[in-house]
């Protein structure tokens, strides 16, 4: 089958067009694929390391002529052609998922020999690594937060850990620990204070064999 945007020959009676809900559902998936980009999170400020909210998928798509051409081409097709395109997009989505391999929650760390302390440290953002290398890190504070996260996620790997932290440097340390442990962290204002939320991207919690505090002491 040809890709969307290329004319297709049809034959036989035309089918009624699919519902708007069906079109929006599948076209949203297709446009999301078009808008995907590689790379990490955009630059973050010291006071707030939460990434900015992504723009609405259709708001961004409608501002791009290429994506609008895809949409208009689809809407101008006959009902039978639209059904063919939708089936094609479904098949493409399934095959892409297979090519990508394990997704969120499919934990392969136990069988990955490259999951070393150095790899964990490289997972930390460049700016935070620079802070950890240059600054005199309060190891007691670092170890305290490591112990809290280890205790919490070892018992409840799918829960969300929250903490109120007004100290910006302590928030930086917690973000660094989370990145080292492959956890997700974000901070936001809550009633005039800064709240940190930490969650686990995997089904299980598998901390690195060497914690960040021990790794930094080895490097010093």
Automatic annotation (TrEMBL):
Residues 1-21, 88-116 are annotated as: Disordered. PROSITE patterns: R3H (PS51061). Residues 103-113 have a biased composition (Basic and acidic residues). CDD domains: R3H (cd02325). GO terms for molecular function: nucleic acid binding. It comes from the Eukaryota. Residues 139-202 form the R3H domain. Pfam families: R3H (PF01424), R3H-assoc (PF13902). This is R3H domain containing 4. It comes from Ursus americanus.
């Amino acid at each position: 089958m040809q890709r969307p945007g290329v004319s297709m020959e049809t034959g036989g009676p035309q089918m009624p067009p699919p519902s708007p809900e069906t079109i929006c559902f599948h076209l949203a998936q297709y446009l999301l694929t078009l808008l995907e980009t590689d790379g990490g999170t955009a630059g973050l400020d010291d006071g707030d390391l939460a990434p900015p909210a992504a723009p609405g998928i259709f708001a961004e798509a409608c501002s791009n002529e290429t994506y609008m051409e895809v949409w208009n081409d689809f809407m101008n097709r006959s009902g039978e052609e639209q059904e063919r395109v939708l089936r094609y997009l479904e098949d493409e989505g399934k095959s892409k998922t297979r090519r990508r391999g394990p997704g969120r929650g499919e934990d392969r760390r136990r069988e990955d020999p490259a999951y070393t302390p150095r790899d964990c440290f490289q997972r930390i953002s460049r700016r935070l690594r620079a802070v950890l290398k240059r600054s005199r890190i309060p190891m007691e504070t670092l170890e305290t937060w490591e112990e809290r996260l280890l205790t919490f996620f070892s018992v409840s790997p799918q829960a969300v850990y929250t903490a109120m932290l007004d100290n910006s440097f302590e928030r930086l340390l917690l973000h660094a620990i989370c990145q080292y442990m492959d956890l997700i962290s974000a901070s936001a204002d809550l009633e005039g204070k800064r709240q940190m939320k930490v969650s686990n991207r995997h089904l299980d919690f598998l901390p690195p064999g060497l914690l960040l505090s021990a790794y930094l002491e080895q490097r010093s």
